[in-house]
C-alpha cells in the first residue's frame, strides 16, 4: 500500500510529492483540471506518466465527482457524457480506478434516486467492464444541512447494499473515506472488514467533532448561519490525518487484514493548516481539490502521521 494524496497534476506538485516521500497520487480529471478527458493528448499523457514514473509515483485513481442524477437534465446528461470520457481516459492512462459519486435527485427522498441510479449506472458499468476499469463510489453524502438536500446516495452500508443490488457489477465498488463515517456515526473499521472486496480506493481524511458547537446547533447543524460550503455544518470539521478522531493504526490494520491492494491517498481539506488566503474561489469540487491538493503544509503533516504506519 502506497501513501499519496488527491491533487490536480502539475510538475510542481509531483516534485513536492517526491521530495516529501509520497509514492502515490490520485489525479483530478474534472474538465477544469490538467487531465481534461475531452482534450488531453496522448503526447501529454506520455509526458505526465513519464514524470511520475521517474519519481516512483503511481497514479492510484482518477477523480471526477459530479451529480450524474441531477434534476437539471442538461447538467445530468453532460455529467454522464463526461464520466464516460473519464473512464476512457483511465484506460488510455492505464489507471485501473475512476472515483466518483452515485448522484442523487437532490431535492427528493433518497429512495427516489434508486431507479435513476440503475438507469444511469447500468450502461456506465457496461462501458467500464469493457475497458477493464473499476468505478469507486465515494461515501460522502454531500448533504446540505441548510436545505436538507444532497448529491450522493451512497453514504451508508444500507445504501451500499442497495446500489450493489441495483447494479450488480464486479467493477462497481467504493472509495472509502473514514471521515464521513465519523460524523455519520458508522463504524469505519467494521465497514472495511465487511465491504473489503468492494473497496477499490481509500481517502485519508480525518475529522474533528466540535462538540462545543454541536451543543448549540444540535447534530443537525446550524439552521441560521451558512458555514461557507455545503459540508461545513458547523460541528464536524475536516482535518489532516492525525488531528481528528480517526484511529489510523486500527484503520490501516483493517485494510491490511482485509487484503486491500490499493493505495491510501490524503484528501486534504483542513482549513486550520491550509493557506486559504492563497486559494482561488471554490466554484466546484474541482476548485477544492485544485486548491487543497497543492497546499504543502497540511499534506506534509498528514504524511508525517501516516508514513509511520505504512510498509
Task: Please give the structural blueprint.
Layout: E1 3-7, H1 11-20, E2 24-28, H2 42-54, E3 58-63, H3 73-93, E4 97-100, H4 114-131, E5 134-138, H5 157-166, E6 172-176, H6 178-183, H7 188-194, E7 199-204, E8 206-209, H8 211-217, E9 236-239, H9 248-257, E10 264-266, H10 285-292, H11 296-306
Helix pairs in contact: 3-4, 7-9
Quick take:
By secondary structure, the chain is of the alpha/beta class. It has helices at residues 11-20, 42-54, 73-93, 114-131, 157-166, 178-183, 188-194, 211-217, 248-257, 285-292, 296-306; strands at 3-7, 24-28, 58-63, 97-100, 134-138, 172-176, 199-204, 206-209, 236-239, 264-266. The strands form two sheets. It has an eight-stranded parallel beta barrel with strand order 1-2-3-4-5-6-7-10, surrounded by five helices.
Q: Using the alpha-carbon principal axes, give the shape.
A: globular
Fraction of residues in helix: 25-40%
Number-wise, the strands total 10
**Percentage of β-strand residues:** 15-25%
List the secondary-structure elements in sequence, H or E.
Answer: EHEHEHEHEHEHHEEHEHEHH
Q: What ranges have pLDDT less than 50 throughout 5 or more consecutive residues?
A: none
The major β-sheet equals: 8 strands, parallel, barrel
Mind telling me the C-alpha Rg? 18 Å
Side by side, the strands of the main sheet go: 1-2-3-4-5-6-7-10
Given the structure, what is the number of helices?
A: 11
Q: Helix/strand-derived class?
A: alpha/beta
Average pLDDT figure: 93
Give the N-to-C terminal Cα separation.
Answer: 7 Å
Amino acid at each position: 500500500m502506497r501513501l499519496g494524496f488527491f491533487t490536480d497534476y502539475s510538475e510542481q506538485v509531483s516534485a513536492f510529492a517526491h521530495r516529501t516521500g509520497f509514492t502515490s497520487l490520485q489525479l483530478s480529471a474534472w474538465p477544469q483540471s490538467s487531465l481534461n478527458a475531452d482534450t488531453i493528448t496522448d503526447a501529454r499523457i506520455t509526458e505526465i506518466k513519464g514524470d511520475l514514473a521517474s519519481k516512483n509515483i503511481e497514479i492510484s485513481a482518477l477523480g471526477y465527482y459530479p451529480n450524474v442524477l441531477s434534476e437539471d437534465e442538461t447538467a445530468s446528461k453532460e455529467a454522464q457524457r463526461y464520466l464516460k470520457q473519464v473512464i476512457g481516459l483511465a484506460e488510455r492512462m492505464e489507471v485501473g480506478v475512476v472515483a466518483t459519486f452515485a448522484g442523487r435527485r437532490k431535492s427528493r427522498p433518497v429512495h427516489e434516486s434508486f431507479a435513476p441510479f440503475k438507469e444511469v449506472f447500468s450502461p456506465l458499468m457496461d462501458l467500464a467492464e469493457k475497458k477493464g476499469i473499476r468505478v469507486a463510489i465515494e461515501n460522502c453524502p454531500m448533504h446540505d444541512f441548510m436545505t436538507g438536500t444532497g448529491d450522493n446516495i451512497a453514504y451508508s452500508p444500507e445504501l451500499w447494499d442497495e446500489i450493489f443490488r441495483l447494479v450488480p457489477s464486479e467493477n462497481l465498488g467504493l472509495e472509502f473515506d473514514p471521515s464521513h463515517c465519523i460524523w455519520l456515526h458508522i463504524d469505519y473499521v467494521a465497514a472495511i472488514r465487511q465491504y473489503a472486496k468492494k473497496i477499490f480506493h481509500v481517502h485519508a481524511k480525518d475529522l474533528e467533532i466540535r462538540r462545543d458547537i454541536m451543543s448549540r446547533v444540535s447534530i443537525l447543524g446550524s439552521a441560521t448561519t451558512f458555514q461557507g460550503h455545503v459540508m461545513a455544518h458547523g460541528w464536524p470539521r475536516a482535518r489532516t490525518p492525525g488531528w481528528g478522531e480517526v484511529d489510523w493504526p486500527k484503520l490501516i490494520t483493517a485494510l491490511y487484514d482485509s487484503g486491500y491492494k490499493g493505495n491510501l491517498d490524503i484528501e486534504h481539506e483542513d482549513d486550520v493548516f491550509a493557506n486559504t488566503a492563497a486559494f482561488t474561489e471554490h466554484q466546484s469540487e474541482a476548485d477544492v481539490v485544485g486548491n487543497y491538493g497543492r497546499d504543502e503544509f497540511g499534506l506534509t503533516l498528514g504524511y508525517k502521521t501516516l508514513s509511520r504506519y505504512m510498509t
